Amino acid sequence: MTDLFPDRIETERLTLVHESPDSTDVFERYEPMNTENASPDAFEHIPIEPFDHPQEAREFLASRNDRWASGNAGTYVVRPKPGEDGAGEPAGEAELFALWDRRTAYFTFGLRKPFWGRGYSGERADAFVVLTFERLDLEMVSVSHTVANEQSKRAIGKYIDRWNGQRDAVLRNGHVIDGEPHDVVQYSITREDYEASDVDPDVRFFG
Length: 207
Known about the structure:
Aminopeptidase
């Protein structure tokens, strides 16, 4: 296991725990994300498909663990802390990719529908922004959403503004979802943006 990424990240309301086959229950991941239970809304704008059977969930976890072991990505299960509705349940999955040769990171986040509207996306983003600049010593972090994803547009816009970041461009056919290419909007936060901001989030790293 790599020591580049923390095993656990804590924010004011969330705990992010490294997702691996050893520490993650395959069926806990499979049940809300299989073809029978998954909400179509949750997959409308992301390049991931629901699982057809538990083995797909197992293979998905293994692929994420390989990225972790290589030092190229930090992968986490996001759980609300005690006092939050649904405390301890897996609310979503977050991943930060490090492009070391470009001194850049980008992150993704899948949040399950019962947890929408709580501001968890911004809280998780703050943790990854701090991780990018304070622990990984990179120079920029980016994030994107499909042009049609209004919910992500609002959430991302809030924390991009908070960190003095900017909207960079529309990338034509930037994602393929369910076999179809979609345009995406890309945003970025540089180290200069980060250091000029007055944001002071409650973020702690462990391991």
